[in-house]
Amino acid sequence: QKARIGVTGLAVMGRNLARNLARHGHAVAVHNRTQSRTKALVEQFGDEGTFLPADTPEQFVASLERPRRLVVMVKAGAPTDAVIEEFAPLLEPGDMIVDGGNANFLDTRRREAALRERGLHFVGTGISGGEEGALHGPSIMPGGSAESYAALGPLLEDISAKVDGTPCCTHVGPDGAGHFVKMVHNGIEYADMQLIAESYDLLRHAAGLAPAEIAEVFRTWNAGRLDSYLIEITAEVLAHTDAATGRPFVDVVLDQAEQKGTGRWTVQTALDLGVPVGGIAEAVFARSVSGHAALREAARGLPGPSRTGAAGAGFADAVERALYASKIVAYAQGFHEIQAGSAEYGWDIDLAAMATIWRGGCIIRAEFLDRIRAAYEADPHTPTLLTDDHFAAAAGDAQDAWRDVVATAARLGIPAPGFSTALAYYDSLRADRLPAALTQGQRDFFGAHTYRRVDREGSFHTLWGGDRTEVTS
Ligand code: NDP
């Protein structure tokens, strides 16, 4: 018997993906550099479906039906290149290597081009949902050729999460498109988590609620328009008590957030593409600030308000509105980045389809994504989600609360970089005039960088060091 698909790299993600495939009735070849992992998988879960264990790469490749579908689930970076180099020589034209790791999309573009030269398909695919998602149905974002998707897509759609019967998997676009979209997904995830963290901090310090009470607030929110996996797990974490000390779990965890890199890539890429993603950037920086222990220790005594307030009963409702509006901004920025990446690399990414496959399986899964899907279906070329009827109305409705929450945070000395940058972005976009005109004047003054005028075409320069007449440049 041959396997329909094979998975090499059987740590948490690969193992669960292989089990998911087997549970869906697909015979799956399994291989891992360290053979004990392969043995353990078959011993523990062999009864879940048909596994074809392989000890060597040659045996693994020989057990796959053609065209061969070979999924690589190893550590991103150099290990992925090493594994590709190990397997590619064993494959034949038309076969495909699927990289399900968290690769940088530029690496994926490089690998795709190199393997295409050798007649092989390379499918860089984003997979979100963590360990549980991989087993029960992740959100899958495959890039690569349309031909490879025809041979691989049905299998991936079969094991992906489903929302209203629709698979959370679609062909994203050529070469690095899938990993690019996964990267932005993670960037949005950072922003969403940061906004939730700020909401918690404000409820705790400005409204004086205890973690267990805040858990209840989040549970209420989760029954409304903020219904999402992240809000749901936030309530769980806040309600949890540390067994050793009896204190709220959130109070015994060291307050230094770590990161693996996809959020940082999202911001670096946005800078290269010239896309303002302040919400995502502030979220990455907030984690970074939290980790600078010595810096924080040195600055701990700086003067400022006491961080405690006595916000009234309506404050939780105000925070909910601020959170919803800020969340719209963060997602609008992320989708803008996908739009820009798609244009830059010629990927032709369908934004409504991306919102559709993020509705389930992934970490940012939420009711909210269905709204985004509807917005892009109504107008695929909308310059920003903020002008969609539903989102514009929600942001409009949130106005007073949003400003009040940001002002309260500033007044009490509670850092709220996510809320603040979201509101600043919103106000920047809607402004009639921005002080960028002054910036242009300064640039022309010190560097003769020229400026354009509101009333005439062309580039101009004022002779600042001379008689200050204006010349056409
Ligand atoms: P790890 O990232 O911890 O990688 C471990 C696996 O990589 C093992 O199978 C290991 O083999 C293999 N490996 C490492 N180096 C080599 C090498 N040089 N040659 C061959 N095999 C090698 O595993 P995860 O399951 O956590 O993640 C797999 C991929 O999925 C990663 O790219 C990760 O970023 C991505 N991912 C992870 C998610 C998660 O929630 N964990 C979510 C989404 C994506 P050995 O057993 O022999 O050491």
Helix content: 55-70%
Specify the structural class.
alpha/beta
Beta content comes to 5-15%
- Report how far apart the termini are: 74 Å
Strand order of the largest sheet: 3-2-1-4-5-6-7
Largest sheet composition: 7 strands, mixed
**Strand tally:** 11
Whole-angstrom Rg: 25 Å
Shape: globular
Average residue-wise pLDDT: 97
Distinct helical segment count: 20
Ions, cofactors, ligands: which are bound?
A: NADPH dihydro-nicotinamide-adenine-dinucleotide phosphate
The low-pLDDT segments are none
Which properties best describe this structure?
473 residues, alpha/beta, seven-stranded mixed β-sheet, two-stranded antiparallel ribbon, binds NADPH dihydro-nicotinamide-adenine-dinucleotide phosphate
Please give the structural blueprint.
Blueprint: E1 5-8, H1 12-23, E2 28-31, H2 35-45, E3 51-53, H3 57-62, E4 69-72, H4 78-87, E5 96-99, H5 105-117, E6 121-128, H6 130-136, E7 139-142, H7 146-159, E8 162-163, E9 166-167, H8 177-205, H9 211-222, H10 229-239, H11 249-252, H12 262-273, H13 278-291, H14 293-299, H15 315-345, H16 351-357, H17 368-378, H18 389-412, H19 417-430, H20 436-447, E10 460-462, E11 470-472
Parallel strand pairs: 1-2, 1-4, 2-3, 4-5, 5-6
Antiparallel strand pairs: 6-7, 8-9, 10-11
The structure holds NADPH dihydro-nicotinamide-adenine-dinucleotide phosphate.
NADPH dihydro-nicotinamide-adenine-dinucleotide phosphate is lined by residues 9-14, 32-34, 37, 73-76, 79, 82-83, 101-102, 127, 130-131.
